[in-house]
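TICKET: design request
STATUS: open
ATTACHED STRUCTURE:
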């Protein structure tokens, strides 16, 4: 079995991987995992630029066009986790009301600046959501729009007073305070899957994908605001 594999992974599952899964997998199998973390959109750009991988974890739907290009093997696509979107505020700030759709919208409108990403799955959904809610113009004229990264950093350094991102990614900025998930009426869950590169077919790569649906991984997902996929 190969002694190492290269993993391209979305940021949404990074904390679960970093905190537990990667170390446990290597300890159990002896297989090292070399990681590249980026939003799924950015990972696709890396692939377009010629970078290669053995396993990719990304938004489930993102693999279809890659399969059409012969880059991934859809027969190996395995759902591993899903995540909702949440809201964070600066340390010490009053916790805003986001219990209902109306309260959530008012919190956004009251914010000095709302920070969100333009390439992450959460930001792509949020951009569409505020357009559907009819508040995009008012929010975007003072929004802190970030290409990629951990958006809650913007509420810690003062650029914004509300940060929007996947709940699992908000954990990467422990100084920020996670208020909670979006209310049910406007919540959006993103499913993430692992898929082998076309032609990869190595036992090591498949072993890693299998590990991502096992008990160690499931426990790590639960600790990092991710939900397992039934």
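STATUS: resolved
RESOLUTION: sequence designed for all positions
ATTACHED SEQUENCE:
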């Amino acid at each position: 079995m190969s002694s190492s594999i290269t993993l391209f992974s979305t940021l949404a599952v990074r904390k679960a991987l970093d905190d537990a899964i990667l170390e446990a997998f290597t300890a159990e199998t002896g297989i090292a995992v070399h990681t590249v973390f980026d939003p799924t959109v950015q990972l696709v750009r890396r692939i377009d630029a010629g970078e290669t991988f053995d396993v990719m974890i990304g938004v489930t739907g993102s693999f279809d066009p890659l399969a059409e290009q012969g880059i991934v093997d859809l027969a190996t696509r395995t759902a591993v986790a899903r995540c909702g979107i949440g809201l964070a505020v600066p340390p010490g700030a009053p916790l805003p009301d986001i219990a209902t759709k109306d309260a959530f919208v008012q919190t956004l409108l009251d914010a000095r600046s709302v920070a969100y990403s333009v390439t992450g799955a959460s930001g792509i959904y949020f951009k569409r959501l505020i357009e559907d809610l009819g508040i995009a113009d008012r929010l975007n004229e003072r929004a802190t729009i970030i290409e990629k990264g951990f958006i809650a950093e913007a509420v810690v350094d003062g650029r914004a007073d509300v940060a929007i991102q996947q709940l699992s990614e908000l954990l990467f900025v422990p100084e920020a305070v996670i208020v909670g998930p979006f209310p049910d009426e406007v919540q959006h869950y993103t499913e993430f899957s692992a898929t082998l590169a076309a032609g990869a077919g190595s036992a090591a790569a498949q072993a890693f994908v299998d590990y991502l649906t096992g008990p160690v991984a499931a426990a790590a997902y639960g600790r990092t605001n991710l939900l397992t996929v039934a």
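CLOSING REMARK: The chain is about 35% helix and 25% strand. The chain has two domains: 4-82+190-228, 85-186.
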